[in-house]
Design brief:
This protein is 40% helix and 12% strand. The protein has helices at residues 55-69, 93-101, 106-122, 139-142, 173-176, 184-191, 198-202, 215-220, 242-248, 254-264, 267-277, 281-294, 299-315, 318-328, 346-353, and strands at residues 18-20, 31-36, 39-44, 76-81, 86-88, 128-132, 135-137, 149-152, 157-159, 195-196, 208-209. The protein has a 7-stranded mixed sheet. Strands 5-7-9-10 form a 4-stranded mixed sheet. It is found in: Mitochondrion.
């Protein structure tokens, strides 16, 4: 069966026998932290905004994870989302953008503490199981992909769409994406391609797959959950394109990739060229270099690099313009600056990666 490799999971108690950890006095806490038998359970509880992650939530999750890691009465940790639509659709980017415009410190605090949490998940000494049932993007990827086990369902929708808002695939994207097979990670990073259901496992983002109606059983008795056969006969959505992706995205530059796509002329290549033409040119070049460097770095070093990048993006214009066009005004018509790839010089890209006086990092 799927989870029989975890012999101690059979000691889990049913969900109705839980010990709730004292939370704040809010009627609807944004994060629920519970002990279920010998399992720590984190529930992201902002379903009305697709469980978007904010700084307050990060500051609740991180210390509890560290506490459970040293608790001899906790064997595993499970993280899930409330509401049935999303695990976590990303960070609360609008709040970060507004604070940045007002000169507040949220843009620094949010990214720094989010990445510290991501690193803690990646280094967690106990089994960490993310049930990514529903939309899983951006910050939600950071809460899941670095854990030991990621369980997708037929409702999972995974993407790293940051190049469309003038950012880059952060939360450790520079670590896990270049470690996917071939050029698949680079393809996902540049295009923001959406993976659904079992394809999330086939791509290597999820480690396991179960049907959503069996998630509650999974939470109670992980080792007894049978292997799901749903959609097992369907091929990976990108299977027939993997060799094309490897060939077309094998280049020393984003411009080279665009040349490959346009020269190829296939429907698939034309569609990807059209997609990339809508993305921030600066974000595309930053992302390309991010994945190049990240392929040889540790997760911690990648997150340090991404913190520098995040702060440079906050100081630039494309991120604010992307958030305006996609999330605020929703006209889907961002005015990128620079507006073309050839206007984004290597010197400009290098500045995003250079350490500056504002590059302050809390020891991980």
């Amino acid at each position: 069966c799927t989870f029989c490799i975890f012999p101690f999971f059979s000691r889990l108690k049913p969900l109705h026998r839980l010990q709730r950890i004292q939370m704040s006095s809010h009627v609807e806490p944004e994060v629920l932290l519970e002990k279920v038998g010998r399992t720590g359970v984190i529930t992201i509880n902002r379903p009305k905004v697709l469980n978007a992650l904010n700084l307050t939530m990060i500051r609740q999750i991180y210390p509890q994870l560290k506490k459970w890691e040293n608790d001899s009465e906790v064997d595993i940790v499970i993280i899930k989302g409330a509401g049935g639509k999303a695990f976590c659709a990303g960070g609360d980017i609008r709040a970060v953008t507004e604070a940045g415009k007002a000169g507040g410190s949220l843009a620094q605090d949010f990214f720094r503490e989010e990445y510290i949490l991501n690193n803690a998940i990646g280094a967690y000494r106990k089994p960490y199981i993310a049930i990514i049932d529903g939309i899983t993007m951006g910050g939600g990827v950071g809460l899941s992909v670095h854990g030991r086990f990621r369980v997708a369902t037929e409702k999972t929708l995974f993407a790293m769409p940051e190049t469309a808002i003038g950012l880059f695939p952060d939360v450790g994207g520079g670590y896990f994406l270049p470690r996917l097979r071939g050029k698949l990670g680079l393809f996902l990073a540049l295009t923001g391609f959406r993976l659904k259901g079992r394809d999330v496992q086939r791509a290597g983002v999820a480690t396991h797959f179960v049907e959503s109606n069996k998630v509650l059983k999974l939470e109670c008795f992980l080792c007894f959950c049978p292997q799901s056969s749903l959609d097992s006969e369907k091929p990976f959505v990108l299977e027939k394109h993997l060799s094309e992706i490897d060939r077309l995205f094998s280049s020393s530059s984003v411009e080279g990739i665009m040349q490959n796509l346009r020269a190829d002329g296939s429907d698939f290549a034309n569609k990807q060229a059209e997609t990339l033409s809508k993305m921030s040119p600066t974000s595309l070049k930053i992302t390309f270099k991010q994945l190049q460097l990240g392929a040889a770095l540790s997760l911690q070093d990648v997150l340090v690099m991404e913190y520098r990048l995040s702060q440079a993006c906050m100081r630039g214009c494309d991120f604010h313009e992307g958030v305006r066009a996609v999330l605020v005004d929703r006209d889907q018509n961002p005015k990128w600056n620079p507006s073309t790839l050839d206007q984004v010089s290597d010197q400009l890209v290098d500045k995003y990666f250079s350490s500056q006086t504002w590059d302050v990092w809390i020891k991980l």
